[in-house]
Amino acid sequence: MKPLLAAIALSVLASLPAAAAPGALAAAGLRCEGAAAPLGIDVAAPRLSWRVASTARGQRQTAWRVLVAASPEALAADRGDLWDSGRVESAATDGIAYGGAPLAPSQAAWWKVCMWDREGSPSAWSAPATWTMGLPDAAQWRGIWIAAPGATETVLLRHEFTVKPGLRRAVVHVTGLGQYELSLNGARVGEDLFTPGWTNFDETVLYDTYEVTAQLREGRNAAGLFLGNGMYNVVRRNRFAKFTRSFGPLRALLHLRLEYADGSVEFVGTGTGWRTHAGPVTFASIYGGEDHDARLAQKGWDSPGFDDRAWARAVAILRAEGVLAGHRFGTEPVRAIEVHPAVASRAFPDGTVVYDFGQNASFLPRLRVSGPAGSTVRLTPAEVLNPDGTINRNTMGGPHRGSSWWQYTKATDGEEAWQPRFYYLGSRYLRAEFIPAGQAAGGGAQAGALPRIEAIEAVVVHSTAAPVGRFAASDPLLGRIRDLVRWAQRSNLVSILTDCPHREKLGWIEEFHLNGPSIRYEFDAARLFAKAVHDMADAQTPEGLVPNIAPEYTEFRGPFRNAAEWGASFLLVPWQQYQFTGDAALLREHYGAMKRYFAFLDGRTRDGLLEDGLGDWYDLNLPKTGRAGLTPAPITATAFLYEDARVLAEIAGVLGKADDAKTFAAKAEKIRERFNREFFHADTGTYATGSQCSNAMPLVMGIAEPADRGRVLQALVRDVEEKGYATAGEVGFRYLLQALAQGGRSDVVYRLVTQKEKPGYAYQLAKGETSLAESWDAGPGVSHNHFILGQVVEWLYKDLAGIDVDPAGPGFGRILLRPQPVAGLAWVEASYDSRRGPIVVRWEHEGGRFVLKATIPANTTATVQLPSREGEAVTEGGAPAAGRPGVAFLRREGDRMVYSIESGSYSFESRW
């Protein structure tokens, strides 16, 4: 009886709310599979996580308890009827696998957590959280794939069904290829755009899950699906297209679960009883644009009672698509983020008007237009203007590749509103053409009144991945540089990470590792990176090649398909994910495929060197000459071969594969020695061509011999200071910044990134750029919304502000605070909302006085490296630092004092 009584007493005690004393622990930020209140969970044992919140120093979790219930009422009564973990002695707050009763398809689960602090006192229960299951088994779907019997540009699908009295809950799982919008009873379901996400549709098809109880009513109801092409069916038809390709006819799949108060359940699914008709969008291309003829709209088509007798019956699609996946391989949805009105407009003698929205961004136009029925407004986008104020299309694919536009044809003589569905673009300007009725099709021009735009706005659209970073400095130019890069990041965050949001829209994978840290410091993009690795795995060939783009919608040739600097993402992105989140799932899932890719590269070496690469792509030389850049491919490709082997050894160690770790470490050492024999010039202390990329990569990757590192760094600094600008391109620039910062020369970085007279960030700002351009000089023909050179953001957070992860505690369980103050900056402040909670840093210095204020989350520790003079006292909170609560002196390291701190807020001061 005693153990049972003790368990009961413990349960009662744990359910009682703790006193809200200062510094008391609280669980916050509850997530399931990395998302708040996710829908469509398609793994049997979802992983749960939370944050430990406390203002006290040194506070930590020593144990936890999770309750999961089948109803919010049961959870409120502290009944874990699905799972009661009991008290678990652990400091872990992430990756807690659900261990309860099997979960049914579409089932909702409610959960909460409490914890015990360092003193053994329980916290209050957290606020409740929830998740909803998807359909993890394809056999669980009650609908079948359907399509229109004939090919049309866009497709409408509809079906009516009856809802009985007493509906308690309705959940729909749905997808449509290429893109779909779902409506119920004439109202759109959700706010998501461009669903489902882009994948290799032969391998993986994403579906979405929505709670739709409030949109249904007793009696007759109607479901409507509006299908467009997306990346599934890329067409040209005298419009711009990066490539053309079709995965097949447009199709849809839907499963609606209706749960009633009496316990009965009914299902509605797609089938041959559905009706179909051509949609009013007469052209839909993810590259070429979208034409909407409102005269073709079927009014009330997605509402009950619509007469669809003239519509054709849908046909079943027999060929299986790829594996259906919900939350598991999905990302945060794309939605409308903000609205930009036109800041200026200019009318031209030919009747056109050019609108300026003040910001180069990924957007959809939204307009109200008046004029006669049949008249048309055509909106052509552009990033830049010609000197005469007309739009310049050269950066959008160029006139020689056709053009792209949105086009709306009016249905009535009254005012109408329109926003496109299937085509977004990155641009700043729109040229409006006004076409009278009868002329838009290209013939039979008729005299008549023109349409008129009454209002026009740019609706900025991109991923809803949450912002997690904040940065400011005494020099506002750094903030403007960050904004320049951040707009380019935002514009390319969709369900993949595109390189530019207009002429490419492809997932060139090198950006995921070269710009990975810069994006991670700004956005909670862990799910996006996880999907990217799955896309790479889907694209991997039987030989082991990981192509340069994923999903691989089109095959390029030579190094544009097989470049080691690009394919390295397949190893480096999972490794970065592990460092930033502490989650080793990608390492475990793809380890075998990673080894196959390395074996593929290793088998293509000649005399120990690898030539499959693009060199330092888009360095300062390449846009000017169109020839090879300053750092040829064998240098960068072999360096990444080394990095691949080194990281594989690290990954093997994390996964407990000791023999593999030794094997890959030995391979890395062999490649390192070969690289140094081939490329290092002992007489000059430089590598290869002596370019900034050639010297920086061996320093950061650890290729350079310890005895040579000082000379290589000196050569690198000398080159940067003599030139006064960066010659390194997309591949080398991150390594240039990191080599200088790791060598204690952030002062050189600061001068480099803020100089205005030569190509670079400040130079682009001076030219009027509002998002980062593809090349340093933002020259003719380059994209003006391209984040490939945006690695400075990593330096701002990690090096200048000093917020970094300690490899000994991945996921910021242990934190490195190592600010690098530089002359010319009086203060810097930054925060990063890590998996464990917000990390906040502010440093300032004046007159030899250096102050560092820092806050780290509960359940973490940090190592602080504080600049200080030899022999000078360091204080924290006005008293000697070593004696302060939560502070322990570790050592002196060069010009820094090193301390260990527990969680909480601190204020250090030193002489420097």
Structure description:
By secondary structure, this protein is of the alpha+beta class. The chain folds into five domains: 2-133, Immunoglobulins (Immunoglobulin-like), CATH 2.60.40; 138-325, Jelly Rolls (Sandwich); 334-463, Jelly Rolls (Sandwich); 469-801, Glycosyltransferase, CATH 1.50.10; 814-911, Maltose phosphorylase, domain 3. The strands form ten sheets. Strands 23, 24, 28, 29, 30, 31, 34, 35, 36 and 37 form a ten-stranded mixed sheet that branches. Strand 44 and strand 45 form a beta hairpin. Helix 5 packs across helix 18 and helix 13 packs across helix 15. The longest helix is centred in the C-terminal third of the chain and has 22 residues, at 633-654. The chain starts with a helix and ends with a strand. The model is unreliable at 1-20 and 441-446 (pLDDT under 50).
Shape, per Cα inertia axes? globular
Taking pLDDT < 50 over at least 5 consecutive residues as the criterion, the unreliable ranges are 1-20, 441-446
Average pLDDT metric: 94
Count every helix, treating DSSP H or I runs of 4 or more residues as helices. Answer: 18
Instruction: Indicate the structural class.
Output: alpha+beta
CATH architecture of the largest domain: Alpha/alpha barrel
Q: What name does CATH use for the topology of the largest domain?
A: Glycosyltransferase
How many strands? Answer: 49
Mind telling me the CATH class of the largest domain? Mainly Alpha
Could you give a short account of the major beta sheet? Answer: 10 strands, mixed
Integer-rounded radius of gyration: 29 Å
Q: Report how far the terminal alpha carbons are from each other.
A: 65 Å
Number of domains: 5
Proportion of beta-strand residues: 25-35%
Oligomer: single chain
* Portion of residues within helices: 10-25%
